[in-house]
């Protein structure tokens, strides 16, 4: 293709990304003019109405049919509609993240946030422990680093920026205000997490994303590739590995759950088995998703292992 046409296409694509970013920023600015609960519920209603018309809706339904063959089509459609509600809610909640997190460990009355595993948080803080936390795209997973900071834990979180570079730049800046240290998921990210562990801090990793150079395993009985970064860090630094998740509750509330450290599988020579450990992470996330299927992102190509 001639160079002038290639340059034109490149500029057109960049303009489209910029326009999408400006529209997104405008909608978020509009949301700030509304009370938090009103804006979040409006976003949820828009998600349920508009999500099924998205090209990603078909991907979500295909994934749900493969994951839940025992469910009928109406049940799968209902899960997908609720998923879109949750995804649009998540977008609106970015605007109010610091307002939403009202958890006070010493408060007598419950707020929007409840914490299961508070004793574990307190113990890790008292021990000044260096740990590896992992979670998945369930509930509002963005609240977990905020919770860790509330208990005085120094956590560096691996952050996968959106594909739109304009949105990614704004989002990364916004997330730094409440979430402590962030490492963008790109070349060199492993070094950033390793440095945090070397310095005695803790790290947090999302483990349910496709990684085309990952370890081959299964998720809902289907082949997937999983990023081996977490097991490799655990093997190198011998740090405890804690599962953590966020569960949406009725009434706009959340439950943040921290579990005790898991024992990763080891090889005959005593080292952590990378492939078996990656599968263990898949199994834990599958358990979470089966419990609350409408709170997970079914529209991404988690099982498409043939493409980068």
Automatic annotation (TrEMBL):
Compartments where located: Cell inner membrane
GO CC annotations on file: plasma membrane
Species assigned in the record: Oricola thermophila
Keywords recorded for this protein, A-Z: Acyltransferase, Cell inner membrane, Cell membrane, Membrane, Transferase
One GO-annotated biological process of the protein: glycolipid biosynthetic process
A Pfam family of this chain: Lip_A_acyltrans
Family matches, as InterPro entries: LipA_acyltrans
Entry annotated with the keyword Transferase: yes
Protein's name according to its UniProt entry: Lipid A biosynthesis lauroyl acyltransferase
GO MF entries: acyltransferase activity
Main location: membrane
